[in-house]
């Protein structure tokens, strides 16, 4: 919300108070100020010029040579390329040495051989955005009023010396989304009384109800709806004071009727809409919900397919406007309009919000309907708009309003005691002091001993309970004046939960392995949400996402890490090793999602750099597996199995494995499939993801074991087996029959080539046996090895070598 200091001063006498002082005071009383802008700052030597003569440049098809009166004895020659420059107009002139927007300095120059003493400026060249410049001046220069005096500074004519205070309005203070609302706020802060000009509508003898009727089908969604009718209007540009006021507030002037509705929006916070009465197509307005697949072309020229959730204004049959969001193109105000139907209403905030989000139509009007409207000024805002249209467009206002629905406006009454206020704020305020604060806020107040009965006017619809009143007292009294007190009571030593300790140890191991922690968004695209999943789940989608890229809850952490790798790779950082601990969200269709904590990692590039004695070593599957081995060793988990799998479409089928402990899947490890890596814009990348919720519940084997007093025995076994037999299958086969004295199994050789049949491979294992209670005999070891060899030949069809 941009607040004009000059406009505000028309309602509240600020008595020389500077805009910056006002901004500081408002910030400490509850409405944050983003900044104060004075449009003329940074500009200099820009004056009013009167074009006395304008002729075409002899050596150009678009330049003009102008003789301009700039308030000096002699005319100044300026070459101008604007298509709308002509003799007899007042223009904006930047003199030699002037500074215009972006700190550009204007110099005396020659253009196609003709001297140009400065520059005739457009509004954009002195700082106005192209989006707020009137369309008739969008491609040319701006005409100043005929009363402008040549040589005067331009800034007062455009109110560029005015300070614009930008307010950051929170949803609960939508009353400050209007100049009148801000005036009440400033008056309360400084103990003043705001004054507003009287509204007096001059009506003719024709009754408005004779020309139009209104039917409200959904009164719950339209608590108030009324219209005024203005006849014999002449559509023309608004007077300059109105154009300037709108431009400075960030709104493009259109014409005298539309500009009045925007002016009232800023002044009262009441959205209005003007229909061309002759284009409505009937003498009736019906407000209802749209029918399925009904169509409407809105003012932006887009054809919208409506749904039964959309509230529309119709001519009895056909939609002519999206209620509270945008009007229809067929009934807009144009240069041929002579009769205006002016709409003022209250619409259901939720309905307006849904419609604006559905069609991605966010406007100043819809924002105010969503946050709330002052119900007490709907009539007055409509009357003032009708009065201004009649004045600026030479129209006649028909007698009376056409009312479809209306609300009964009343104050909100809240009782509160002095003791309650002082107890909450830690103050010692007296009855008189609190009564004065309520008077400054323009709240009605009755005092019975130490109890206040406060009447809150409808313009402050955010105040409904006792706590709201206490906040108002604190704001106006001054947060900086509230006493400071230290907390009392005993303190206790903090501690971590078991899961927090477990997570910290995970971080310690991964960061010790050289990985850097990342934090990614929990929201992603539905496609990325379903990647890298080892359990089935429905996608949890947001009904109203902020962007399409953040429309679904993630079901993996890896996609977010790959986005981060892509970001780094695009900036020439090719060696990236990251991890993330975060939550994923699984759900059955139509069921509320459950959260599960995962840890994931992603590595790409080299894990050792090339130097004078070491070759660069790229990350591979076994390097990442080594990190997981270290992680498992940290917690002494027993029974870890890495088992090859091809169930992940996003991972390389020959370089991917499931990770199991005690036959329970805890995650996976693998290389990102080349096609997926190409989609992300990354090179060879290896990833892993584990469920911390499962990992934290696994049994931990005993960390300490006494060193045995008896010797260990090692036996080797080598055999030829089919090349598709996995290492984990061989290990599990040996463990099943080797007996209780088997301590460990170590693979020390794999061979394929000469002397080995095609489609087979030679495997060699070292088996370590240990009896902690006695010395193992050769007979015990031999029996164990015989069982191992028999199992390998019978179960895996191996040939012992």
TrEMBL record:
Residues the entry annotates as binding Mg(2+): 462, 468, 471-472
Matching entries from SUPFAM superfamilies are given as:
Anticodon-binding domain of PheRS, Class II aaRS and biotin synthetases, Nucleic acid-binding proteins, PheT/TilS domain, Putative DNA-binding domain
Q: Where is the B5 domain?
A: 409-484
State the reactions this protein catalyses.
tRNA(Phe) + L-phenylalanine + ATP = L-phenylalanyl-tRNA(Phe) + AMP + diphosphate + H(+)
Q: What does the UniProt entry say about where the protein is found?
A: Cytoplasm
UniProt remark on cofactor binding: Binds 2 magnesium ions per tetramer.
The keyword Ribonucleoprotein is assigned to this record: no
Which GO CC annotations does the UniProt entry carry?
phenylalanine-tRNA ligase complex
Question: One MF term in GO for this entry?
Answer: tRNA binding
SMART domains per the UniProt record, alphabetical: B3_4, B5, FDX-ACB
The record's EC number reads 6.1.1.20
Q: Which residues are in the TRNA-binding domain? A: 40-155
Q: Which family does it belong to?
A: Belongs to the phenylalanyl-tRNA synthetase beta subunit family. Type 1 subfamily.
Q: What is the designated name of this protein?
A: Phenylalanine--tRNA ligase beta subunit
């Amino acid at each position: 919300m941009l607040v004009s200091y000059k406009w505000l001063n028309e309602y509240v006498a600020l008595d020389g108070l500077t805009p910056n002082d006002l901004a500081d005071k408002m910030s400490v009383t509850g409405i944050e100020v983003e900044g104060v802008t004075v449009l003329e700052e940074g500009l200099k030597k820009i004056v009013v010029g009167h074009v006395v003569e304008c002729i075409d440049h002899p050596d150009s098809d678009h330049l003009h040579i102008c003789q301009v009166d700039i308030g000096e004895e002699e005319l100044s020659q300026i070459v101008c390329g604007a298509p709308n420059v002509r003799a007899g107009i007042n223009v904006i002139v930047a003199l030699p040495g002037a500074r215009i927007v972006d700190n550009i300095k204007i110099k005396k120059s020659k253009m196609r051989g003709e001297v140009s003493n400065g520059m005739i400026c457009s509004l954009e060249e002195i700082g106005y955005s192209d989006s707020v410049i009137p369309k008739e001046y969008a491609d040319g220069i701006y005409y100043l009023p005929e009363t402008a005096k040549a040589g005067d500074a331009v800034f007062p004519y455009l109110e560029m010396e005015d300070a614009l205070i930008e307010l950051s309005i929170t949803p609960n203070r939508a009353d400050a989304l209007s100049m009148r609302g801000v005036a009440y706020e400033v008056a309360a802060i400084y103990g003043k009384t705001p004054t507003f000009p009287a509204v007096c509508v001059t009506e003719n003898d024709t009754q408005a109800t004779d020309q139009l009727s209104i039917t409200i089908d959904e009164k719950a969604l339209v608590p108030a709806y009324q219209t005024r009718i203005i006849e014999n209007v002449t559509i023309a540009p608004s007077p300059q004071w109105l154009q300037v006021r709108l431009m400075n507030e960030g709104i493009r002037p259109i014409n005298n009727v539309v500009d009045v509705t925007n002016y009232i929006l800023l002044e009262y916070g009441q959205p209005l809409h003007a229909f061309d009465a002759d284009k409505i197509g009937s003498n009736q307005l019906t407000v209802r919900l749209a029918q399925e697949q009904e169509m409407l072309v809105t003012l932006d020229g887009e054809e919208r397919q409506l749904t039964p959730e959309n509230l529309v204004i119709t001519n009895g049959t056909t939609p002519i406007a999206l209620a509270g969001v945008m009007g229809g193109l067929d009934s807009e105000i144009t240069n041929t309009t002579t009769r205006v139907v002016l709409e003022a209403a209250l619409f259901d905030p939720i309905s307006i919000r849904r419609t604006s989000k559905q069609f991605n139509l966010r406007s100043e009007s819809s924002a105010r309907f969503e946050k709330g409207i002052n119900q007490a000024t709907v009539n007055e805002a409509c009357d003032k708009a009708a009065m201004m249209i009649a004045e600026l467009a030479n129209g006649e206002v028909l007698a009376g309003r056409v009312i479809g629905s209306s609300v009964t406006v009343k104050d909100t009454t809240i009782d509160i005691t002095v003791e309650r206020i002082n107890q909450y704020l830690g103050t010692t305020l007296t009855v008189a002091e609190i009564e004065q604060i309520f008077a400054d806020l323009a709240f009605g107040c009755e005092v019975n001993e130490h109890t206040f009965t406060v009447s809150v006017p409808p313009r402050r619809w955010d105040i409904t309970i006792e706590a709201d009143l206490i906040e108002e007292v604190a704001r106006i009294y001054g947060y900086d004046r509230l006493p400071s007190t230290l907390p009392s009571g005993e303190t206790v030593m903090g501690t971590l939960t078991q899961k927090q300790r477990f997570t910290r140890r995970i971080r310690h191991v991964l960061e010790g392995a050289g990985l850097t922690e990342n934090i990614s968004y929990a929201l992603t695209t539905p496609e990325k949400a379903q990647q890298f999943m080892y359990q089935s789940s429905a996608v949890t989608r947001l009904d109203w996402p902020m962007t399409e890229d953040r429309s679904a809850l993630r079901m993996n952490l890896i996609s977010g890490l790959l986005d981060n790798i892509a970001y780094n790779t695009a900036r020439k950082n090719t060696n990236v090793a990251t991890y993330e601990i975060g939550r994923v969200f699984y759900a059955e269709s139509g069921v509320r999602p459950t959260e599960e904590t995962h840890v994931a990692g992603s590595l790409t590039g080299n894990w050792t750099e090339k130097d004078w004695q070491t070759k660069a070593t790229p990350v591979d599957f076994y390097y990442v597996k080594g990190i997981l081995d270290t992680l498992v060793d940290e917690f002494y988990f027993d029974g870890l199995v890495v088992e090859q799998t091809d169930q992940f479409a996003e991972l390389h089928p020959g370089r991917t494995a499931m990770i199991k402990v005690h036959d329970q899947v805890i995650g996976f490890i693998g290389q990102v499939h080349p096609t997926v890596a190409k989609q992300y814009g990354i090179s060879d990348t290896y990833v892993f993801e584990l469920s911390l919720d499962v990992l934290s519940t696994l049994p931990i084997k005993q960390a300490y074991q006494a060193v045995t007093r008896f010797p260990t025995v090692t036996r080797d076994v080598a055999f030829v087996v089919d090349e598709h037999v996995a290492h984990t299958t061989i290990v599990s086969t040996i463990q099943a029959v080797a007996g209780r004295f088997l301590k460990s199994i170590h693979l020390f050789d794999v061979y394929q080539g000469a002397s080995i049949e095609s489609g087979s491979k030679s495997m060699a294992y070292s088996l370590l046996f240990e009896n902690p209670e006695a010395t193992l005999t050769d007979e015990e070891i031999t029996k164990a090895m015989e069982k191992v060899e028999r199992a390998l030949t019978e179960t895996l069809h191996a040939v012992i070598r």
